[in-house]
Amino acid sequence: MVNDDVIVPRISDLPHVLPGLTGKIELVFEGEQEGSVKVSKALVGKAVRETFKKYFPDPLRKRTRGSQEGQGGKQGDDSEYAKIIQWFESGNRVEVSDDMPRDTYARELEKVKGLREVTKKHMASLDEKYELPSVMEFVLDGLHQNSKIAKDEIDHATSYKDLVGSIFTGQGKMYEED
């Protein structure tokens, strides 16, 4: 148990809602083939994706040529999230957990190039010490929910990494969400 002085919810806390959610889903989906845990994860993922779109630009929408702000003929991902996605495509990954001390959690998220800048651009009034790291993880999960980066959950740890690389190495855990 971490003894941080201020408690801020994290995306990595969300798996703890699954047991309560799966109990409700079992009552509604009794006899279905999907399985309550898979359905619960899909519902949580959809909630993250929809909330993400309320605060951040849609990562699936391409920017028009005029809005690329002097990037010229740059190829590849021209989105606002390009620096973040390229960081993961370079073989980098981050791992966070619900029981990490705040400082360790923040340092791990700060490794991701461009993540702080995108987060602050769209959520300018965040408390740097407590809220910013949690919202930075939210951005990563939003990118995952929009199929831009991969996510693995093992026990209480969540790792974010390159989507394409994880597909080819067979290490990505993909599940469909609607």
Order of strands in the sheet with most strands: 1-3-2
- Estimate what percentage of residues fall within beta strands: 5-15%
State the domain count: 1
- Structure annotation, total helices: 7
Tell me roughly what share of residues is in helical segments: 40-55%
Task: Indicate the topology.
Layout lengths: L17 H11 L7 H20 L26 H8 L4 E4 L4 H9 L4 H8 L8 H15 L3 E6 L2 E6 H7 L9
Antiparallel strand pairs: 1-3, 2-3
Helix pairs in contact: 1-2, 2-6, 4-6, 5-6
Key attributes of the depicted protein:
single chain; 178 residues; mainly alpha; 3-stranded antiparallel beta sheet; 3 strands; 44% helix; globular
Describe the structure.
- Helix 1 crosses helix 2, helix 2 packs across helix 6 and helix 4 packs across helix 6.
- The chain has one domain.
- It has a 3-stranded antiparallel β-sheet.
- The protein has 7 helices and 3 strands.
- By secondary structure, it is mainly alpha-helical.
- The C terminus is likely disordered.
Write a compact overview of the structure shown:
This protein is mainly α. It is 44% helix and 9% strand. It has one domain.
